[in-house]
Amino acid sequence: MHDGTLLAAVDLGSNSFRLEIGRFEHGLIRRVEYLKETVRQGNGLDDERNLTPDAMQRGWDCLARFAERLKGFHAEKVRAVATQTLREARNRDVFLQRGSAILGHAIDVVSGPEEARLIYQGVAHLLPQSDERRLVVDIGGRSTELILGHGFSADAVASFRVGSVAWSSRYFADGVFSPESFHAAEIAAKAVLDEALNVYRPQAWDIAYGSSGTAGAIGDVLAAAGGPAGLITRAGLDWLQEQLLRARSADKVRLEGLKEDRRAVIGGGLSVLRAVFDLLEIQQMHIAQGALRQGALYDLLDRELHENDLRSTTVLGLMERFRVDARHAGRVATTAAQLHAQVRHGANEPGEKELTWAAQLHEIGCLVSHDDYHHHGAYILDHTDAAGFSVPELHHLGMLVRGHRGKVRKLEAGLDSPDTALRLACLRMAVALCHARRDPDMEGVRLSRQGNRFTAKAPAGWATAYPQSAHLLREESAAWQRTPWEFSAELP
């Protein structure tokens, strides 16, 4: 990565969509441009947890405006992440498919723990380095993330379904403030958050930081009222609640420092923050400058520097946790990479990493049961919290793991992509070649692709020397039937 390189992050939050563009300079990312639009997608979930047409259109319209600014950005220089509202939405694929096309870049839905990790990275990179143990609290529109960390390391992450938009809709639906509504909102927030007490207790951290919209908005109001800049105190929260109760309704609130887009959700945000203060015995909270979007930018930077890609470390951790035979997994990964390079003519592209990870994890389900272990492996990857990975990335990885044995047609739509089909062909062929759990003889063994046909070739005498491997490769022809792809083995 060269100095002057531009990177961009898009944060599709429940309350606002944000675009941050930064320039890489001397190891740091400095802001070039920041755009924010209040979209309120969190209010657009109906009783069936589907995004309404209006909510989707608001999001698409915003993304179209962001897309204009992102013209000319290469895919590897942009990270777009969606959070709790799109985690919940049952029709999220409809929004994401069109939204990604409008934006011109893929939108990743991240899990709650992954959102928390990115938030911490954003906060940590904009704080002076120290040995302090940090508690970071991020109250979003529909979720609240809690993180314990030190330096750039997030040691504990958690996400809870409680936020400013959700709580404002539920407990201040008419915009009316009353002592009873605040009491009910705080009790409900504590009921969701109380499991955090075991990990995030006061003895586990030295300084508390608040990031993103709610903390920033409340901090601005308290500072405008004469409080210390960049600090939220218990007394300040009591004062703010009293001001809201005096106003009686959101549309009558007139507080210096309160932006218009925060007026409708200030009641819910305040009640959640008061609950956090009480539960975790926080006396004061510092306002952090970094947040999710800055974390996404630094995550892009880490991915660009391949040796720092957290996802590779996460895969190794999963291998250890599920007792994967690391030697054999490495053997399959090396073989699959060799085959991939033959078809790609040595080209280096992001799919090579995914192929390596799938090979390393192809036996992850064996700890559950050797029968149908490929199905168990796919289930694990679809339902695990894996740092650095988005939800779609894990699903795609799980699809490769599921497809590495058995009939290929079970993957259905996953085979629409030629790149995915190639990675699957390489993985399956590598597993076949390594069936004896020893390094295969790759001398003269080749994989090629022409159109929708994969062809495996070996030199004369190879099939006689390795009859079981030859049998497995010939069986691949039947395995790919009733798919858009063909596989043939030319083994004289």
Give a brief rundown of this model.
The protein is an alpha/beta fold and 492 residues long.
Question: What would your notes on this structure say?
Answer:
The protein has 492 residues and is of the alpha/beta class. It is built from 20 helices and 14 strands. The chain has a six-stranded mixed beta sheet with strand order 8-7-6-9-11-10, sandwiched between helices. The protein has a five-stranded mixed beta sheet with strand order 3-2-1-4-5, with helices on both faces. Helix 4 (112-125) crosses helix 12 (292-304).
Throw out a few tags for this protein:
single chain; 492 residues; alpha/beta; six-stranded mixed sheet; five-stranded mixed sheet; 20 helices; 47% helix; elongated
Largest sheet: 6 strands, mixed
Query: What is the structural class?
Result: alpha/beta
Radius of gyration: 26 Å
How far the N terminus sits from the C terminus, by CA atoms, comes to 47 Å
Low-confidence stretches: none
Helix-strand blueprint:
Layout: E1 6-12, E2 16-25, E3 28-38, H1 53-70, E4 78-82, H2 84-88, H3 92-103, E5 107-109, H4 112-125, E6 134-139, E7 144-150, E8 153-160, H5 164-171, H6 179-193, H7 197-200, E9 207-211, H8 212-224, E10 231-233, H9 234-247, H10 260-263, H11 266-279, E11 284-287, H12 292-304, H13 310-321, H14 326-344, H15 350-361, H16 373-382, H17 391-403, H18 418-433, E12 446-450, E13 453-457, H19 462-465, H20 467-479, E14 486-490
Helix pairs in contact: 1-3, 4-12, 5-11, 6-11, 8-11, 9-11, 13-15, 14-15, 14-18, 15-17, 15-18, 16-17, 18-20
